[in-house]
Amino acid sequence: MDLLRNIPTVLLLLLLLSFATATVTAAAAETATAPVNADTDSETDTGVTFRYFDRYAVCSFSSSPYGAEIYIDGKLAGTEPILNHYLIAGEHTVAMSKTGYKTEEKTFTVAAGERKTIRLNLEEKNSPMAFICLYSYPAGASVTMDGKYIGNTPINNLPVFFGMHSIQYTLDGYESVTSAIAADTGKVSSLSVALKPKANRDPICNFISEPAGATISVDGKYIGTTPFRSYHIAPGTHRIRYSLSGYKDSSDTYNAVYDSSGDIFMTLAPLSAPET
Questions:
Q1: Are 71 and 78 in contact (CB under 8 A)?
Q2: Disulfide-capable partner of 110 in 57, 91, 136, 271 (CB 3.0 to 4.6 Å)?
C-alpha cells in the first residue's frame, strides 16, 4: 500500500529526469555545429556542414599589395590573406593597413549562408600628384603623354602621377619629337622642345600608259618609256606627253607639290580605227 501511495512522486521524478536529459542533448548538438568564435576570430573551414549556420556568412579578405593587417569591425583579425572567416549575417566594416600605404576601409553586408570575397587596393602614402608644364617652339603642337592625347602646347600645371612619362610633340610641317619627363612628388616639372621643320621632299611620279612602251616627255624633255616609276619631279606645273608609234600623242598637265606622289596614266588612241 505504501508503494501505491508513492506512485505519483516516482512518475514526477521520471518526467523531470527525461526533460533534463533532452535539454543536455540539444545543447550538446548546438555546441557541436556552431563555429568557434565565429563572430570575432578567423577560423578555417574544417568541413562542418554549412547548412547549420543559419546565422553566419563565410568571408575571405585580401589586399594589394600583399600582407596588409586586416581589421574587422574594429578588431584585428590577422594578416592578409584571411580565408573562410565566419561573420554573423548583417553589416560589417573591414579596414586594411600596411606600412607605407594609406589605410583603406569598406563597409559591406552579408547574408546568412553567403560566401563573399573582399579585396582592397592600398594607395602609397608618398605618391601624391605631381605637376608638369609642356612647351614647344613654335607653340600649338599636339601632345600625347604615355600614348594618350592631353592637349596642345603650351600646357601648364597638368596634374600627373609620380614617375616617368613619355611625351610626344606633333605639329604639321615639323618633325615629331618624343621625349621623357620625370614627375616629382608635389613638384612642378617642365619640358620644352624646339621643333625642327621637315625637309621638303621632291614630288614623285609614276608614268603609266595603255598600251605600255610610250616615250615620256616632261616639258618637252625626254624622260624614258612607260611604265616609269618613282621619278623625282620638280615642284610646280608640268606638261606631260606620251608618244607611241601607231598611236596618237596624248598630253596632260600635272601639278607636283612637295612630299607628294601620284600616277600619271594615259590611254593612247590608235591613229586609225581597225577595219571591220
A1: no
A2: 57
pLDDT at 7: 55
Q: Is 126 left (phi over 0), alpha (psi -120 to 50) or beta?
A: alpha
Choosing among 1.20.1250.20, 2.60.200.40, 2.60.40.10, 3.40.1160.10, the CATH entry for 130-194 is 2.60.40.10
pLDDT digit string, tens, across residues 26-56: 444 443 334 544 443 334 444 444 444 678 9
- Contact assessment for residue 214 and residue 200, using Cβ atoms and an 8 Å cutoff: no
CATH architecture of residue range(s) 204-267: Sandwich (2.60)
Q: Tell me the CATH number for domain 50-121.
A: 2.60.40.1120
Q: From residue 235, how far is each of 69, 89, 152, 216, 221 by CA, in Å?
A: 72, 81, 32, 18, 16
